[in-house]
Amino acid sequence: MGALLLAGRSPMSPESSEEPLETTTVVLVHSPRACSLAATYAAAGARSPAGRKSARASRDGAAARAAAADPTNYLLSGGSRALENERVRNAAAAARAHMRGMKGANAVLAAELVRTLQDGERAGGVLRGELAALAGRFRAEQSRLEGLRERLAEEVRGRAELEAAHQERIKELHKRLQAEHLLRVNAELDASRAADRASTAAVQLKGAEQALEGARQEASEAREGRLAAESAHNKERLAQAGLLAEVEALKTSAAREKHTREVQQRKCAELEASLRSLSNRNAELQEELRSAQGEAEGASQGRVAAEASAQRARQDQRAAQEQLEVARKGRAEAAAEAAELQGRVAEMEASAALYIAKEANYDDLKAEHDDTCAKLDKYRGELEAARAEARTNAERANELSKQAAKVPALSMELEQAREDLQELQGLLGDTQAAFKLLMESVKEKEVAVDGLERQVETLRNNLEGMRRARDEAVDAAQEKAAEAGCLQQELRSAQEEAANWQRRSKQLQAEADGRELELARKDLQAKELGDALHLLNSKASDDAASAASDRRRLEGVVKSLEGRLGQVQMELARTRDELAGAEQGQVTARAELAAVQEDNARIRSQLNEEQMRASKLRGELASLSSGRMKEQQEKGGLLADTLTRLQAEEAAKLAAQQEAKAMRRRAEELEGNLSEVASAKSRSEEAYESSQAALESMRRKLEVYKRENKNLLSSYDSWLKGVVAQRQPVVGASP
């Protein structure tokens, strides 16, 4: 303990009637601040010349004041001076003792300060070493984190490439399945058409055989009836006429019978020829049926191959899903490691920041240490009372700790609620992702439907164009038919004109022959009529040449007209073929349009079902989230109240145990680091548990998706079987 020496003058007691004398009063005031500064002030005053001069002046002043007292009362003045001197000596001795105590206290404080500085330097060195080690560990963890980030990026890229390749392969397999399905459907249609043709040919063959049998029966009945009638008639004629007439009648009947038999033989030959042609047609149809059956077998083999390829595609899909699951596991592990490393990096950064702040505030801490050392003496007296109060507070803290034992359970429930909420959020995210994928697939299907509708519209336009072309072709055919009629009329007129020219040439030839006969008969007129005959011969030859040239010209015109008529008939046949193809394309387009409309309706129904399911899931998720939020708010309020009470009690406890906490600061820091490590470990365990829960949920979803895929495949197979069963041909039984 230190003391401060204060000197002052006070008047003498009022009981004395003598002149008042000045006395010196020494007051020792105990103050921690004065004790801490008294040694410094005393040493500074003793060392400085001004201090020595002031002390000497104070003594000279005291002597002068003693000399200036009343000289008449020497005893009293001498006694007062002796007392004053005694008091001065006592004060000086006390001051010297106090100075010695202050010097000792100053030495103790200096030694403690040196020791504190050494401890601070050692702690600073230890902190600097730990900071350097933490900086090294931080750099190593940063490098490791960079490596893990690169690995995670590579895993993500690999997963994206794998998913893209998987989607491409699925699309290719889907296209192959569609192509094989179309081939199978076309083969089945061809087989059904061939079976229909075979059944039609069988029915026609049966009808022809029945007609042949009926014709034979009719011929036999007619022959029997005719023979009976003829025999009756012959009997009557034989009865009426003689034997010759009977023989003639028999001959006539025999000839008639022979003629009828020949006619019937010709009819039988014609019927047998038609029967042979029908048999050949039946053989051709059976051959077509066998070829169609072979095509159907090939289609079935193609279906088997398609099913095998689909099985391989499913196996590839399962392998890809397993690879994707492995990639997801690796990604989850990498994410867990990255989260753990980020947590550790954050902790190390916080520790490094704390150490840096401590190092930066070392001078402030030193000043605070000086102030703390100054206040230490003051707080020692209060420590005992604080200890008693601390014991009381410890008892209260034990009670509060008993109450606080319930806090970890509430914290665990709160963490469980948070984990459940995170899991629900994850499920919501997965559901939203699945719904997005479904909406994307629906959009793709809608785009495909739009494309098909555009194709249908294009087919409709093409059909309209083909109809217009057909109408134009029909009009052109009608025009060409009219033109052919005109050409036929021209041909008939040309033929009539040629016939007229032929008749004229015949007439001219007859006239020439008559004239030659007339010239032969009339020899006498030959000379007179020679010139006229020569002129007539030249005219006839000119007329015959012109008639021959006209005939050749008309024959060329007839041939050209026949060629044009053949071209018109060929164009008419081609137009009819185009019209038949257009009608077949129209039928195909209608079938495709119906299939597209059915697919569109099915896709829309699936979309409505998925939207209903998504709305139900949203409602359930909203209800669960609201319930969880309410529970979390209630638990949070209860926990906040408990924490508020605990904080108030802990504040009181901390106020009572501040000195003990200051002495155990280093231990608390170590315990804090240990708690941080434990919290990091608990966070890593929680992250691992959450990742395991997410993995388990993904596994469950994968099982659900597998079951749905299996159900879809089974429904698709059953639908195909139903379609095949519906399209099986019905062949009539042949006799």
TrEMBL record:
<feature type="region of interest" description="Disordered">
    <location>
        <begin position="214"/>
        <end position="233"/>
    </location>
</feature>
<feature type="coiled-coil region">
    <location>
        <begin position="558"/>
        <end position="620"/>
    </location>
</feature>
<feature type="region of interest" description="Disordered">
    <location>
        <begin position="285"/>
        <end position="321"/>
    </location>
</feature>
<keyword id="KW-0175">Coiled coil</keyword>
<feature type="region of interest" description="Disordered">
    <location>
        <begin position="43"/>
        <end position="64"/>
    </location>
</feature>
<feature type="region of interest" description="Disordered">
    <location>
        <begin position="1"/>
        <end position="23"/>
    </location>
</feature>
<protein>
    <submittedName>
        <fullName>95 kD basal apparatus</fullName>
    </submittedName>
</protein>
<feature type="compositionally biased region" description="Basic and acidic residues">
    <location>
        <begin position="215"/>
        <end position="233"/>
    </location>
</feature>
<feature type="region of interest" description="Disordered">
    <location>
        <begin position="661"/>
        <end position="689"/>
    </location>
</feature>
